[in-house]
Amino acid sequence: MTALPDSVLLDISPEGVAVLSLNRPGKRNAMDEVMIAALAEALETLKGADHVRIVFLRGQGAMFCAGADIEMMKRQGAHSLHDNETDALAFARVLKALHDLPQFTVALVHGAALGGGGGLVAAADYAVATEDAQFRFTEVRLGIIPSVISPYVIEAVGPRTARALFASALPFDAARAREIGLVQEVVEDELGLESSLKKLAGLAMENAPGAVANAKQLARDFAGHAIDDRIVKETAKRIAAERASEEGREGSAAFLEKRRPAWDGGQS
Fold this sequence. Notes:
With 268 residues, the protein is an alpha/beta fold. The strands form 2 sheets. A 6-stranded mixed β-sheet has the order 1-2-3-4-6-9, sandwiched between helices. Strands 5-7-8 form a 3-stranded mixed β-sheet. Strand 1 and strand 2 form a beta hairpin. Helix 1 runs parallel beside helix 3, helix 4 packs across helix 5 and helix 5 packs across helix 6. The two termini are 33 Å apart. The mean pLDDT is 94.
């Protein structure tokens, strides 16, 4: 277990499975300045952890995350515009760091993901939710807007759906979250989350880590671009580079020799 403030726990197994846990169960894992700083520290650690193959984000206690801590919001209400921008930038950088991690990232959602908690879900690559999990972007009810989470939610669900959810503060369930693309998998209960964790961790070991990072970059770089000659040439350039890479050569050799590749233990 990596040493961090108690509000965040980071456990990395010898095999390279990282579990990052929000750990303020008495506050419904609402985020304050200390938790946000701890998340930033943990994500920086994970960014440089070459042996980590998959990162799970989850919440301790009754729910995934209730969004911003009310006491922090009270403090921010008394801050200057400059100080508020500094506070907001800290969480914005956490979301960007999660979104940009080279490893495959998975949010495991139970109870509820509200406000900024939903932003964390959207910033992950994949999300699994229990069927009774609830979601809501509540900011307009508080007289504010879901600004720093908006790029990730819009990327996940599309602009019109995001606009509707942001402006209405409409609550929605896990089935609806899957329907709109915020969640990719719905399971019955928290035992189902554990099952998904084991399944996805196992799959992660079969995938070349460098290729995973580069595949994620493809989606970032090509989203929203017309499929013109420049894009066609760039896609050809990137696959050629992958084929010539150490991972590409090892993957092809392992397939032809009917053995496991080096990143998956290298055994027959």
